[in-house]
Amino acid sequence: MTKQFALGIFEDEDVLLHAVENVRAAGVKIYDVFSPYPVHGIDDALGIERSRLPIAAFFFGLTGLSFALWMQIYMLGFDWPMIIGGKPHIGLPAFVPVAFELTVFFTCHGMALTFFTITGLYPRFKVPVMDVRATDDKFVMAIELDENSSQFPRLTQLLRDNGASEVNQKEMTNN
Amino acid sequence: MATLTHHESATAEQLVVTDGARKTFIAIIVTGVVILILGILAQVLGWGAAEHGEAAGHAAAAHGAAHEEGHSVLIKRVIVSLWHSNLFFLGVSTIGTVFMAINYVAYAGWSVMVKRISEALSAWVIPGGVIMLIIFLVGRHDIFHWTHEGIMDKNSPNYDAIIAGKSGFLNLPFYLIRTIVYLAIWAYFSWKLRQLSLQEDLNGGTVWFHKSINASALFLVLYAVSSSMSAWDWVMSVDTHWFSTMFGWYVFASWWVSGIAAIALTAIFLKQAGYLRALSVNHLHDLGKLMFGFSIFWTYVWFAQFMLIWYANLPEEAVYFNQRLGGFEGRYTFLFYFNIFINFVFPFLGLMTRDAKRQMIIMKIVCIAILAGHWSDFYLMLMPATLRGENGFLIEIGIAAIFLGAFLILFTRRLASASLVAVNHPFLDESVHHTT
Fold first, then answer.
1. pLDDT in tens, B117-144
2. What's the pTM value of the predicted model, to 2 decimals?
3. Residues of chain A with C-beta less than 8 angstroms from the C-beta of B313
4. Does B353 touch chain A (CB under 8 A)?
5. HEC profile for chain B?
C-alpha cells in the first residue's frame, strides 16, 4: 500500500516547534516529525501521549527477578544442593547479585525489543526514510495526504507561512 | 499556586518567614524538650525496664566492667543522641553545598531554581560543627571506646592491643585536627559559594559563575576525601575494633540522599506557600529521580558491605552485623529490616513511576520517609556500638526534634536573607524552561 506525504523541511528547532503548534491549531493532523536529535518539548507540542513502555519494562523486570530467584533456588536448593562456604542451601543474600543482574538484563532487552517492534525500527534491508537530511541537519514534518493529494497546495502554503524552507511530496510504500 | 507561562522569565522573590512558621519551629523544639523529659523520666523511673532490663544487664556485662568509664547510662544516652542527631543534620546541611557544587561543575541549568535552597541548607554547618566539637570535648568517653584512659597503655588494666595498634590514627590531637579541618573546609566553601552567589545577585555578569565553578571543583575534591574520612572518624570509630572499606561511601550515600530529599521537601513547601513561581513539576521530577536513584545507590553500598561480610563470615567483621541482627536480645533486629524497607523498598516502589515523581503529595511523603529513614540508619550505626542495647527512642527522638527546630530556624532565616531566585545566574532561563 502506498501513502502520500507532504514533507515540510525546517532549518531551526524553534521555528519547527512554533510551526508544529500553528499547524495543529489550523486543524491539520501531523503524521510525525523527524529530527537529527531529540527536541525538548516536541512531544507536548505534537500532543503525543506518554509511552507505555515503562509499564512493559516493569513487568520485564519482574519476570527477570522471578526467573533469577526461581533458577537459583531450584538449582541450589532442590536440584543439586551443595554446601558452599557453610551457608544454607538457599542463602538469599548470595542470590541478590544474580537476581539484580537478570532483572536489569530482562528489562533492557525486553524494552529494546518491544521498542523496536512497536516503532518499526527493527533492522531490515529496505529502510523507509522520509528525508535523509533528517539524520543530518534538517527537521522534517510529515503530514499524511489523502488519495489524490488535493490538500497539497494548501499545506504547502501553510508550511511555508510557518517557516518551512521547502515543502516536498513523497510517496511511501508499506507501513 | 502561581506558575509562569512559557514566555515569562523569573524575577526576584523574597521569602517572608511568617510568625506562624516561627511558632511551628518553636513548637517543634518544645515538643522535643517534652519528649526528652519524658524519656529521661522513663529512664530514671525504669519504665519498661521489665522487658529489657535483663538485656541491658547482659550488655553491661559483655562490655566488660574493666573499661567502663564515663557517665551513667542516662547521660550517656543523651550524649550519644546529641552526637547522632548532630551528625545527621550536619551531614545533610553540608550536602546543600555539595549539591550546588556538583551542579556548577556539571554546568547544570535545571537546578538553578532550587539553588538558593541548597545554599540555605548549609546554614547549619557552622553551628553543627561547633556543637560537634563541644560534644566531643565533653562526652567523648561516652561515645568513643578508644578515648578511654589507659586503653593504649600496655601497663594499664584497660589495655586493648587492637585499639593500641590504631593509635597512629586514633589519637586525640590528630583526631581533633582532622575534625577541625573537615569542618573548616565545609564551612569555608559553603560560605564562599554563598558569597559568590550573593555577589552575582548584586552585580550580575558571568564572572561569579566562573569563580563558583573553580571553587566548586576544588571543594568537591576536598569533600570526596573529607566526607569519607569524617565517616571513619565520626561514625566508624565508635566500633573501634571493626572496620569496613565501604563505610565512607555508605555514610556519604546516607547524607546525600537525605540532603536531596531535604531540598525537594523545602521546594515543595515553598511552592505550596506561593513562592518559587518558576518552579515547575519538571524540577520536582528531576529531584525525584535523584532521590530514587540515590536510594538505590545507598542500598547498593549497604548491600555490598553486608553481603561481603556475611559471605566471608570473619569474626572481626561479622560482629558488626551480629550486634545489629539478633544481638542484644534482638533489640535492633526490627530496626535492621525497617532500615532496608524505609530507605530502599519504599522510595523504590513509591517513586518508580513518572506520575509519582510529579505528585507533590507523594514526593512529600517519600521525602519525609527518606529523612526519617536515614536518621534511623545513623541510629543503627551508632547505638549498638555505644549503648549496647540500653537505648530507647524517647530521648533520641526528643533530641532530634530539638535539632530539627533549631535547624529550621537557621535554615529559613538564611532562605529569607536573599531572593529565593538567583536572578543573575546565567542558566536561570534554562531552568525556568526546563522540561523533563
1. 999 999 999 999 999 999 999 888 888 8
2. 0.86
3. 85-86
4. yes
5. CCCCCCCCCCCCCECCCCHHHHHHHHHHHHHHHHHHHHHHHHHHHCCCHHHHHHHHHHHHHHHCHHHCCCCCHHHHHHHHHHHHHHHHHHHHHHHHHHHHHHHHHCCCCHHHHHHHHHHHHHHHHHHHHHHHHHHHHHHHHHHCHHHCCCCCCCCCCCCCHHHHHCCCCCCHHHHHHHHHHHHHHHHHHHHHHHHHHHHHHHHCCCHHHHHHHHHHHHHHHHHHHHHHHHHHHHHHHHCCCCCCCCHHHHHHHHHHHHHHHHHHHHHHHHHHCCCCCCCCHHHHHHHHHHHHHHHHHHHHHHHHHHHHHHHHCCHHHHHHHHHHCCHHHHCCHHHHHHHHHHHHHHHHHHCCCHHHHCCHHHHHHHHHHHHHHHHHHHHHHHHHHHCCCCCCCHHHHHHHHHHHHHHHHHHHHHHHCCECCCCCCCCHHHHHCCCC
